[in-house]
Amino acid sequence: MQDLRTIKPPDQCSPSSVLKSHQQACFQDFLSIAQGWSPGPLQRSREVGVYLRHSSVASVHRMSIDKEAPVNLLPKRRKYRLPQSRSYSNVSSTSLLPEVAPKDNGKICMVIDLDETLVHSSFKPISNADFIVPVEIEGTTHQVYVLKRPYVDEFLERMGELYECVLFTASLAKYADPVTDLLDKEGVFRSRLFREACVFHQGCYVKDLSRLGRDLKKTIILDNSPASYIFHPENAVPVQSWFDDMGDTELLSLIPIFEELSYSEDIYASLGQLRAP
Ligand SMILES: [Mg+2]
């Protein structure tokens, strides 16, 4: 395991013009290493001098693959204990999600990403943070500054009426769970799935929709990272990555689209029509 003392705290990561999500990548990796992951060659970037792991930086992964790294640097995973979260309370042995609640019968399952889709988080203090969430790593508490994407409240409220909403994030529960508690005051998310529920595939955390226990014809994923839905691109509604643009209207503009899709009996057909030129 990487010595934590050799990892730059995220707020000290060198500025990079390579990608705006650099800060987030630092944050993700800091947490992941603290959780017991070792950096692997696919994630080590010689160009920016930090480790990049999160799937939202898949394009950077491809830019900076270290082909000469020794095989023994491949990621090692320790056995995880599932977090003590309500999201796992009724998980069956075959599905990530519990049975559909009666009030959601017949609804499409909407899988929604967290970082850069609904919020952006950083260790760097910002004056206009919507939330400041303490996250303990190896006995030290770090403050995480969270910005909400414009119209996220309106978006979640409406989606909660129309869909069975599931939070699915590649981030760690120790960060994502308290952030979601603050973001989702009304309990829109029926379930929450974290990094442990992802499949680690070619250096990325993939959200395998086939493991949810839902009809794939009635499952949609909303995510800023194409790598997250690489197993099921036909189920995806891409969304632009968001960091701090307070003039962003992406979520607002998606509401009428999802209102229409909520009546679909086959999202492959419906999304196919939307994608047609
Ligand atoms: Mg994301």
Automatic annotation (TrEMBL):
<protein>
    <recommendedName>
        <fullName>protein-serine/threonine phosphatase</fullName>
        <ecNumber>3.1.3.16</ecNumber>
    </recommendedName>
</protein>
<dbReference type="Pfam" id="PF03031">
    <property type="entry name" value="NIF"/>
</dbReference>
<dbReference type="InterPro" id="IPR040078">
    <property type="entry name" value="RNA_Pol_CTD_Phosphatase"/>
</dbReference>
<dbReference type="InterPro" id="IPR050365">
    <property type="entry name" value="TIM50"/>
</dbReference>
<dbReference type="InterPro" id="IPR004274">
    <property type="entry name" value="FCP1_dom"/>
</dbReference>
<dbReference type="InterPro" id="IPR011948">
    <property type="entry name" value="Dullard_phosphatase"/>
</dbReference>
<feature type="domain" description="FCP1 homology">
    <location>
        <begin position="103"/>
        <end position="261"/>
    </location>
</feature>
<keyword id="KW-0378">Hydrolase</keyword>
<dbReference type="InterPro" id="IPR023214">
    <property type="entry name" value="HAD_sf"/>
</dbReference>
<keyword id="KW-0904">Protein phosphatase</keyword>
<dbReference type="InterPro" id="IPR036412">
    <property type="entry name" value="HAD-like_sf"/>
</dbReference>
